Prior knowledge:
The chain is an alpha/beta fold. The protein has one domain: 3-Layer(aba) Sandwich (Rossmann fold). It contains eight helices and five strands. The chain has helices at residues 20-31, 38-46, 50-57, 59-73, 91-100, 110-116, 131-149, 163-173, and strands spanning 9-13, 34-37, 79-82, 102-106, 154-156. A five-stranded parallel β-sheet has the order 2-3-1-4-5, with helices on both faces. Helix 1 packs across helix 8. It is globular, with a radius of gyration of 16 Å.
Amino acid sequence: MKQHIRNGILYLTGLMGCGKTTLAPLLAARLAWEWMDTDSEIERITGMSIPAIFEKQGEAAFRREERAVLREITQRKRLVVALGGGALTLPRNRALIRGSGTLVFLNVPPALLAERLPADGTRPLLGEGDLLERRRILETMLRSRREQYETADLILTPEDDTPEELCETILICLGAQT
């Protein structure tokens, strides 16, 4: 079913490593829009890395910063947004996102994500465990977030798709081919 991009904002959601930050600039280029990664924007505003925010201030402080960034985003148009994987966990964030644009869920299987993501401490919620441990953590995250993710306007399960193929699929499904 074809849809259109509501209010000129296209949000990408899914677990860490699903390709949001890779896909956002590709979609933005095709649409001749700007793009933003909320985690990078939080790092820019705070002057701290995401792991440092989690370590020094905690997840609650990170979520407050995330909400402030989301409020700013809702005032813009012609923007593709790569959301942090947990952005939809708070009801207020979900309401902001759902009310201000079109949401696409990249439903990449946790086993594939565990292979993609390094165990180097750069992902605070993932830790530094082995492949099996990372997969278990990702499966648990997906179980706890699935209901929120599935509120998306479009749900895709990319596994072997290249970013360019996935970009094309999204644009076709949303009726936004350029």
